Amino acid sequence: MSDDPSGDGAEPVPDGGAVTEETAGGSGGSVLAGLRERDDFVVIAMAAALVVFPFLLVDILGAVGDVIGISIGGYAGLPSLVLIYGIIVIGFNLLLGYTGLLSFGHAAFFGSAAYSAALFSQVVPSPILMVVVGTIVATLLAWPIGFVSIRRSGVYFAVITLTFGQALYFYALGPGSWLTNGDNGFSGIEADGLFLGAVPLDIELLPVFDSYTVMYAFAAVVMLGAVWVGNRVINSPYGLIFEALGENEERVEFVGLNVFRYKLMAFIISAVFAGVGGAMFVIHEQYIHPTTGLYWIQSGDFVIMTVLGGTGSLVGPVFGALVFEYVANVISGVSLPVIGSIGSLWRFVLGAVFVFVVWVFPRGVYGAFSDLATMLNGGRGGDGDEPVAADGGERE
Amino acid sequence: MLLLQSEIASILLNGLQQGAIYALLGIGLTIILGTMEFLNLAHGALYLVGAYTGLIVFQETALSNGLLYSSGITTIGFEGGFLAALILVPIVGFGIGLLMERFVAEPFYDRPETDQLLVTFGLALIIEEIVKNVIGGNTFQSIAPSTIFGVNVSQPISLPLVGLFPSWRLFIIGIAFLVIGLTYLAIERTDFGLVVQAGTHDSEMVKILGIPINRSYSLVFALGAALAAFAGLIGASIQTVSPQIGTQQALVPAFLTIVVGGAGSVRGAIAGGLVLGVIISAMTQTYSQWAQIVLYLFVALMLVFRPEGLFGSAEVGE
Predict the structure, then answer these.
(1) Which chain B residue lies closest to A175 (C-alpha atoms)?
(2) Please, which pLDDT band fits residue A142 given cuts at 50, 70 and 90?
(3) B63 versus A279: which is more confidently predicted?
């Protein structure tokens, strides 16, 4: 896992990641195409993007904001938060975008991981162990929930995942208060530093740029791991079957594959990502409440991020997470000359953008851009089909 | 023994009242789902619109009649206001339903159901935010009037077995079941209802037979919306009103109702609503902390062991 992209640093294309799938079948660039075939490329490109990301989001946008007099720069903790949600939606997209299952209950995995990490931190405040524990709990929870939910499809699947999530939410709010502190929220979660407490998470790595904290580096490394795993999954035979399931479940069944098993696996994998994210979230925010952790609107937020970014590619949803958190945390504080303060309108703006994207770009923002790029390249002009199919075909 | 009987009677009565709201919501959702195979996650937003329209009508009429009116936090009930709302709210809901069908639902009839869920989910967010920003995010008291049709309904009434029961709630149960009954008759006994039923069963065949089903679609959608708005008004008269009620108190229960009752079945929505209402009221009276949890787990079990619901055919929405 290379953290040093000094060679590629000059090319700050933050969307390098999923080009792999998109233009692999394009016309020229054999060296580049060969590179893109490799799994490492996605991870390296992502690493490059992660190095410049806080600088762009916080410092550059902050500077631009100073010039135009509107504060559009992110705050120092925002890049980490974006990455945490990004990790979750990469996993969520494996379920929604590839396997075609819309879950409205992923807050259950996010929240249960967050709470168990929080509880565990009272005993051993090691961030890495908190993530491990949270992920294990989310996985163990996903198994039975998935086992039951996967039997239904379409809206029934959405509703059944929702009911499990809501049951957990009301448990955390009421009868489970002895564990979760109920409506008062679970506060005072303090993770120790990394490496047995030697490196506290809030240390700044660089002198001027205060968004490059140890916490960010931690989130970035986990993000790289998530991208790597996600990429391995979608390029594996398993991933191809996920995608086939999304396109035509019956055919997969006719081929003789155990549809149930693959769907369950996709569900559990996506819950693992949500669990990692949930535990990271609680380390980052040091506070968790049933509404932020387990309420179904949180599941809905994962859906919004994923669809905004684009379900057709691995890292597309990360852009959705970026847009969502940017609008929620930065745009909400912006005061415009004519319209005035955005304030609580942010969810309205987000909802409108979301409806627009669903309406006009069924493949999400990222999908629309890459379609456009393919068209401009004069390659196989936007045939709009699912991307990895072409990639996978070539691998055989 | 008598104590137990009275306990059960009051559980049933409270269940009837909550179940009536669920049934109204469920009927609307189920006829839209059944006829158009359209999944409307904005159904809760229609409940929200109904509640707030009721609130506004109620306050405005109270104001124009020179009655006490203190900044919307507490309202003093006025008979005329609620009657006006009873008529106006379903009309507003009907109108919004027509617009929604025409401009939101229609472009999505042929798109995957995930897209339908997504776009209506976004719409629900937008409506909730509009309400929050135009009217405000604060919580309003419920809007029950003190008299209706000249009868004082602010005092509890003594019923056999149950004991004291708020007479307003009794009125609510009565009027809700009147509307449910009329809707049921409209679906079961009229030509329009016949088209709707046929459309639920096989909309393509209806089209082939030359029946202008698109016109029925708009009507069905608008009817479902009017019912949801009416449920919102009823709900606003017994519970506090805030922008979150659309998703919290309406959307999710509406889906649970049709899951229990069976998608596409009006009878199922009524039965499902009542079953859920009774479960909620029974749990609230005994182990109130567990009420919601038991409700959700019941629905989950239902989905596992009887996915077609009480009256449904498992095909719709699958």
Answers:
(1) B289
(2) very high
(3) A279
**pLDDT tens-digit map of A51-66:** 778 777 777 777 777 7
Q: ∠B112-B117-B123 over CA atoms, to 5°?
A: 130
Check residue A33 and give its pLDDT: 57
Query: Which of A170, A175, A351 is closest, CB to CB, to B126?
Result: A351
Which chain A residue shows the shortest CA-CA distance from B254?
Answer: A159
Q: What pLDDT score does A193 carry? A: 72
* pLDDT beyond 80 at B252: yes
Q: Which two tokens stand for residue A114?
A: 């967050």
CA–CA separation, B228 and B33 (whole Å): 14
> Which residues face B164 on adjacent strands?
B158
Contacts of B293 in chain A (CB under 8 A): 167, 170-171, 174-175
User: What pLDDT does residue A31 have?
Assistant: 58
ipTM associated with this complex = 0.79
CA B187/CA B198 separation, integer angstroms: 11
**Token output for B230:** 């009416």
Distances (CA, A) of B39 to B35, B120, B157, B187, B318: 11, 8, 41, 20, 11
Say yes or no: domain A72-395 is CATH 1.10.3470: yes
- Identify the structural domains of chain B with CATH numbers, from first to last: 2-142+166-305 (1.10.3470)
Identify any residues that bridge with B148 across adjacent strands, giving them in sequence order.
Answer: B151
3-state SS, residue A114:
helix
Write down the mean pLDDT value for chain A. 78
Q: Does B134 reach chain A within 8 Å, measured CB to CB?
A: no
Q: Which of A275 and A180 is assigned the larger pLDDT?
A: A275
Nearest CA in chain B to A347: B129
Q: In angstroms, how far apart are the furthest CA atoms of chain A?
A: 62
User: What's the pTM value of the predicted model, to 2 decimals?
Assistant: 0.81
Torsion from C-alpha of A358, A360, A366, A371, nearest 10 degrees: 140
Q: What single letter denotes the amino acid at residue B1? A: M
- Using a CB-CB distance cutoff of 8 angstroms, which residues of chain B are in contact with residue A151? 304, 307
What are the boundaries of each domain within chain A?
72-395
